[in-house]
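Researcher: Let's try something more involved. This one mixes different molecule types, so please make sure each is placed in the same coordinate frame as the others.
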Amino acid sequence: NAGVTQTPKFRVLKTGQSMTLLCAQDMNHEYMYWYRQDPGMGLRLIHYSVGEGTTAKGEVPDGYNVSRLKKQNFLLGLESAAPSQTSVYFCASSYLGVAFVAKNIQYFGAGTRLSVL
Amino acid sequence: AQTVTQSQPEMSVQEAETVTLSCTYDTSESDYYLFWYKQPPSRQMILVIRQEAYKQQNATENRFSVNFQKAAKSFSLKISDSQLGDAAMYFCAYSGANTGNQFYFGTGTSLTVIP
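Model: All components are placed in one shared frame. Result:
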């Protein structure tokens, strides 16, 4: 059981380049999330999705777009990368159902370290 | 918006001793969950413990326990018999039961375990 898988693990971009980060989960979770982690700031929510075909903005959505065409995948896109987007990006997923044991727990991928030069 | 505050950027503890990490939060919701996540150098976020707001009993998981004070909006993590493997960044997180499962994280506490 792989859980939440993020690709790639590392990436270096030049300012203005575009890229897509892929998140895949095999737990049949309804909710998926993208966070960025910066030193001294904890994790901040970029976008999230409550189900296939739906997305919503989080705390810091500017400069990012997302898509959830399949339930198991959540893509994060940077159309024109900027140095301010240098960060570690985390994907997470969680369970919506009524089973209390698992509800509201977020499961994280291993992160993607992105540097924009 | 909900806020989560961790006022201790760094903490240290001697191996086998006990340490407490502090967390406070602000919310107007009555139904919510609180979490402590551990992030070792590998970067992987690992769930340590979870507390449901409606439960008065403090959650425990082996050497990890919490002190949940709902009225004071305080949620501290106690690590007993500290081990070298406990060295990590610890994040406190809040999730409202009815806010789309959105999480709000604190800024983290870096824990060093001294042999």
